[in-house]
Design goal:
- This protein is mainly alpha-helical.
- The chain contains five helices and no strands.
- It has helices at about 5-30, 35-60, 60-65, 70-90, 100-125.
- The longest helix has 29 residues, at about 5-30.
- The protein is globular and about 50 Å long.
Amino acid sequence: MNTEKLSRRWFLAAITYFVIGVGFGVYMGASGNHALFTVHAHINLLGWASMGLTGLLYRAFPGAAASRLAPWHFWLYQLAVPVMLLAVALVYSGMKGASPVAGASSVVVLVSVLLFWWAVISARDSGAMRQGGS
């Protein structure tokens, strides 16, 4: 996949989660109900922060963006994170039956992150970094 296109996809997803995270934080503050602060933290870390950094890292390692793993990383992550966030919200809202869904979707997120790690490591080992890198 084209590095710029892939990075933009990650950046657009990150910005979306940034809006959701800030909006959710404002709601919690205004309502005084902080029962789902864990979900708020996950939205900001797995959404805004991680997705934004992923977009930057794909630019730093264009070989990783070009790998066959990159689309798998993107789609697995984008599909699993919202499921995980919803399941965690349900668990913290008292629906303990959502725990297996939270666990399973967390494993999918982990698999996605491992694919990303392998794509970056492989790009580094193949010398597919930008000039000036090491």
